[in-house]
TrEMBL record:
Residue stretches of biased makeup (Polar residues): 60-81
Gene name per UniProt: clrC
Keyword Electron transport: yes
Record protein name field: Chlorate reductase subunit gamma
Listed transmembrane segments: 248-268
Keyword terms of this UniProt record: Electron transport, Heme, Iron, Membrane, Metal-binding, Transmembrane, Transmembrane helix, Transport
CC per GO annotation: periplasmic space
Length: 271
């Protein structure tokens, strides 16, 4: 008799622990996976191309740390921008990226050979199923680079490692920038789909890697002397993507655990 009661108490403790795990689970799992840039749907009518558009107010932002690119050019390790705030949104047609970083001076003109422009760039792999080297891809694994300079120019480049950069004949990337209160805010966008050779398509069902670079012109930053991020990714792949889906899964798992435990307790009691 005493043994049976001990077994029943044991079973109740196990149930309580499992229930606690089922309740704590969703909170642990719904935290954003590392290095993810969430992509939120927005209405084209809200004009996300404008850096100050209200469309951006509800889009989650990720603070992306930057470090000096180990490019080997003179003073490569001497860079000034330490982080960039990144948001991403999509309409049915286009993917948008909004980058915002602190820079007290807007360097919009390179008037002498010793003056340089502020700039920013976004890098994505051509083949989105394989992660290329962060240093602008490799010959076997090319990257697209969207390159905005503060004189208003916006280029779309193809690179297979440092020194291999070529320009697409026609750029598909649009960039709009504003400088306010010591910060640049830049929105770059491009159609999601692409059937042009070597132009990344975002109409895929796998995660897509993305990396960022920023140059501060008044600190002599240009070319290989720049602040760069690690690889991040857009979560376009399958799998649990957010709390509602995960909560349902955890609730089902919790109920199943309780059911099994109750049946076990009943069996122990009958014995
Ligand atoms: C972290 C490792 C990286 C290394 C070692 C590196 C190295 C270099 C070097 C040596 C150059 C000068 C030669 C050239 O024009 O190709 C360069 C230029 C450039 N890099 Fe990178 N890079 C890195 C990451 C990135 C990233 C992540 C991006 C974009 C998000 C990027 C975008 C660019 C652009 C747009 C230029 C041309 C700038 C100009 O014309 O002045 N790089 N890089």
């Amino acid at each position: 008799m005493r043994e049976r009661r001990a077994a029943a108490v044991g079973a109740v403790v196990v149930v309580a622990l499992l229930l606690a795990a089922a309740v704590a689970g969703p909170a642990a799992v719904s935290a954003r996976p590392a290095n993810e840039i969430p992509v939120q749907s927005v209405a084209a009518d809200d004009r996300p191309q404008r850096p100050t558009s209200e469309a951006w107010d509800t889009v989650p932002s990720v603070n992306v740390p930057l470090t000096s690119a180990p490019s080997g050019v003179p003073n490569a390790s001497d860079t000034s921008v330490e982080s960039v705030r990144v948001q991403s949104a999509q309409t049915d047609e286009r993917l948008y990226l909004r980058l915002s970083w602190a820079d007290g001076t807007a360097d919009r003109n390179a008037t002498s050979p010793r003056s340089f422009l502020d700039a920013a760039a976004v890098q994505v792999p051509v083949n989105t199923s394989v992660r290329p080297p962060i240093s602008m891809g490799s010959t076997r694994n090319l990257v697209n680079v969207w390159y905005w300079s503060a004189d208003g120019e916006s280029e779309e480049l193809l690179a297979g490692g440092p020194g291999s950069t070529t320009e697409f004949e026609q750029t598909a990337v649009e960039t709009t920038a504003s400088h306010d209160d010591g910060r640049w805010t830049v929105v770059m966008s491009r159609p999601l789909d692409s059937d042009a050779a070597n132009r990344t398509s975002f109409a895929v069902d796998n995660d897509v890697d993305v990396a960022f670079a920023v140059w501060n012109g008044s600190e002599m930053e240009r070319s290989g002397r720049k602040s760069v991020s690690d690889w991040y990714h857009f979560p376009f792949g399958p799998g649990p993507q957010g709390p509602p889906y995960e909560s349902i899964l955890w609730a089902v798992a919790g109920l199943a655990i309780v059911g099994v435990a109750l049946v076990t307790i009943e069996a122990v009691r009958k014995n």
